[in-house]
Amino acid sequence: MDLDVFVSAHRAEWDRLDALLRRQRRLTGAEADELVALYQRTATHLSLIQSSAPDPQLTGRLSQLVARARSAVTGTRRASWRDVTRFLTHGFPAAVYRSRHWWVPTALISTAVAVLLGWWIGTHPEVQSSIAAPDELRELTRPGGQYETYYSSHPAASFAAQVWTNNAQAAAMCLVLGIFLCLPVVWILFQNMLNVGVGIGLMSSAGRLDTFLGLILPHGLLELTAVFVAAGTGLRLGWTVIDPGPRSRRTALAEEGRAALGMAIGLALVLFVSGAIEGFVTPSGLPTWARITIGVVAELAFLAYVYVLGGRAARAGETGDLEAVERSAVVPTAA
User: Fold this and answer.
1) Confidence of residue 35 (pLDDT cuts 50, 70, 90)
2) Distance from C-alpha of 87 to C-alpha of 81, rounded to nearest angstrom
3) Which residues of 278-289 are buried (b: 16+ CB within 10 A; e: fewer)?
């Protein structure tokens, strides 16, 4: 594209759109129709310039012009409870459902890694001795030791808030850092599985694996599922950088990035639930079977939410992205 020729050919249209926007409250019917037509053409011009001959100054000017025109054409929207309801019943579960081919394998592989690490640590005393001194290991694993008292070492409310904050940060890092070709996500995920594997290995070597599982399963099922969803989505975002498919890389990253941002908000709510379970249920005096049952019910409820509500919304065309009127116009691409 010859940018100078393109600007000369369309400058008058952009100037006319700017003039109409300055007096939009006093437009005639014909001028309002002209404004809509010029908005659509200018949005197409902006997409062509961004994809073929990006010029920062011109792109900035046209972006502002298109944004003002969109606001004039569609009106200013304010967030409402309807938006919150739509997000919780359509956008978020659909986004999680659409990324299931990433986070389900991530969950299976990660769980297998944790189990293998636990077996390796539990069956090799020399590995255990490299983790901590024998006295420290006994203090960790004995009845009433640090593995057990960890969940009741602080008041339940403050402990739940701390756990929620830490897990939400880990999930957000997986979502955001996925764009760096997936590698940071793999590292974060491995660190989480290593921590689980060390717990499995040390407690199993002390003959107290049942106690460890009774402590981790009530909250861990939902918590780890949320982490797996975040990691899978981060990996998907990283793969979009490598292979955007039929879309332009800019468009693909924008669409997947907006969906990932929405998932970060939704997963924060999921992790709030798991943090509440970890703070109030895990250290409670309930029998082990009752605590595990609560964790299993929470996990099954989340999976039903994703596969029933999310599956239905995804089949209806929901992607978890912004609504069409809120997205920037893009040039169609061939499939």
Assistant:
1) confident
2) 10
3) bbbbbbbeeeee
